[in-house]
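Lab notebook, bench 4. Still working through the backlog of constructs that have no structural model yet. Next entry is a single chain of 366 residues. Request: give me the structure tokens for it.
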Amino acid sequence: MPSPLLNRPGAVATDGGQVAAHYGDPLPEQRRATEAAVLVDRSDRDVVAVPGPDRLSWLHSLLSQHLEQLADGAGTEALVLSPQGHVEHHVVVAETGGTTWLDTEPGTGADLAGWLDRMRFMLRVEPALVTDDWAVLTLLGPRGDDVLAAAGLPVPTGVTPTDDGGWVRRAPVVGDGVPAVDLLVPRAQLATRADALLAAGASLAGVDAYAALAVEAHRPRVGTDSDHRTIPNETPWLASAVHLEKGCYRGQETVARVHNLGRPPRRLVLVHLDGMEEQLPPPGTPVTAGTREVGRLGTVVRHHELGVVGLALVKSSVLEKEPLPELRAAGSVVAVDPDDLVVATDDTVLAARERVRAVRSATIGR
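Model written out:
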């Protein structure tokens, strides 16, 4: 169902129509997130609850993260992989009060919950899709903790339960070190909780603002910044959502083999586009070098400082070339951020920085 926050002034819905892409000021909303505190309605995310005394050891055996000894009040990330090691689901985990909560990409929760249910066997676990009952909000910005305190909510270090049965979770930073806190709230109280946070000093921002800062922080989304061939080693998930020393889980052999070889087939990189096209290219747009397809674009956004940027999966063999060949996507010149280059010699980095500056100023010919 569409979020009640879509009724707020200036709200423009996402293509899915469930939450607001922005509230009339896309770029100022991003800036306020970096300077003050904004509330982002992410209630389109799916939520799966896993209670039961066997839940942690069971999830530990299925997912990529070390969960067997996850402490009450802790949070982390994990992946569901195919037997071949391809990423199927990314979940953000919260452990509190005898339940492990998994929130995941919109529209994927039913598939995740169904797979978990099939993996139960005789264990004492009860995975269930609870999206109809629970919703996720995210508070971004350096003043976020002040807003929580003013609203009478706990300021978490990990995951802290709230009186309504939900929780407040410290999340990884986005953008250039922008603090983030996720809140799980009863869906029936979504508007009431939002009003309390807005009265405490936050302002509304759409999911476009969150996406722009997530792109800057190299935080990918399953199905948008990944495809059916993506393995964790190609992405930052290898560091945040995979435990490389835990026991066996589905897809582990691929992860371990590529990790030991040290060279994934592709790498997720931040790219700068020249912004000459009016419409931003959609996820899955091919990245080409001459006539050869060498990668794919994922999320592409208009960033309040960086201009048009995005995440792209590009072949490692291309990223290792000196000089890097000219890359294009949907009529735009694509420049890989110099910090993401595999080869980091002084001359290469200098040339890459010049190219990024040229792309951002639209001085490269089309």
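Notes after review: The chain has a mean pLDDT of 93. The longest strand covers residues 292-303. Flag for follow-up if needed.
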